[in-house]
Amino acid sequence: MGFYPSTILTRVQTLLTRTPKADLDEEIGSLESQPSPVHNRIIAHIDMDSYYASAETKRNPALKDKPIVIGPEPKEGKARGVVISCNYAARKFGLRSAMPISEAWRLCPTAVYLPPDFRYYESLSDEVMGMIRSKVRVFEQVSIDEAFVDLEDVVGSFEEASVWVSQLKEELRSRTGLTCSVGLAETKTAAKIATDLHKPNGITIIGPGLIKEALAPLPVSVIPGVGTKTELFLKEMGISKISDLQAIGADLMKRRLGRTGVWLWDVVNGVEKEGVREHELKSFSTERTFEEDTENWKAVDELVTELSVDLAARLKAAHVVFRKVGIKIRFRGFETHTREVRLATFSKEQHLIEREARTLLREFHEKKLPVRLIGLRVSELKLETADQSSMTAWLEKKGEG
Ligand SMILES: [Mg+2]
Questions:
Q1: Helix pair 118-133, 51-59: axis angle to 10 deg
Q2: pLDDT > 70: percent of the chain
Q3: Residue ranges per structural domain of the chain
């Protein structure tokens, strides 16, 4: 009892889940001196697994199962700089992100070392995040490969939430080839901590009313936001586990750690109030450098078509429409210009991006200089589903809910 049937949920790690609800109410009733936990929220934290390395494998399946390191060229172990990211196959050799690249080389010289391609990671991220965003009302992207969603109005229980999450994982995998790990809890930070407990490709659930109990045995270092400095400070106070933190009163925490202490107390006691809140989407852009500088405007036009197709696909995936189209052009010698036009109405059409970009570029034809780079940008975005209100208004209306 208490665990979800494994027939519906494969790979689900239930950290602590308890049903039926009556037991839970009794238990909470007995903790009268404690503030009541944040109830009725179902927050999922979604984190793509070894994202940069997985993205590289997606476009080059031959890399599958090989150790992959994203970072500077190791130069036979003589290079400086650190590992930006590595996959799980590389981690088996002891490699970690932020490790000196020279050390990574020493541990695993046969790994595939690749320079980062952030532009590609970003466009793939738009696709992934767009898919997630389209399924929920309350969405918050926190990094290139991480998001929170509030499932309160999507599902009725944690059990339904875990089914929803399994389906999302499957859809992400079949459409993008990428896997992710998910944490489910009543607060954001607990959900994020849960995600990290079973990676890669896991689902970890901290059931309703159980955050305090679930976090108790974990080291304080699992709390995102507790850096080395805070960790050392806590150590001096004799605190290494979250249960030690839970034993400290709110007043003392506040006196010792100020605002961090107030937040930390809420987090470890399962009463963090911070909700999932969408950040404003500002723009999508893409650019490409010609392999050789060109004076052939037909080649420029072709690139404009290609870039506009790319942008339109990203808009579609993210379910947003644009009002402004902008271009960037760089000539040999790095002379760079940008131009922008605002349309009469919002649009999601690829041909409009293409047409406006070409028009904006026309004035540069007479420069008679070799073109090095072309960039396209769409901005003043809003969600396609929001009626006539702007994206910002939509967020203000829904964000605090
Ligand atoms: Mg990740």
A1: 100
A2: 86
A3: 12-50+122-268, 67-106, 283-383
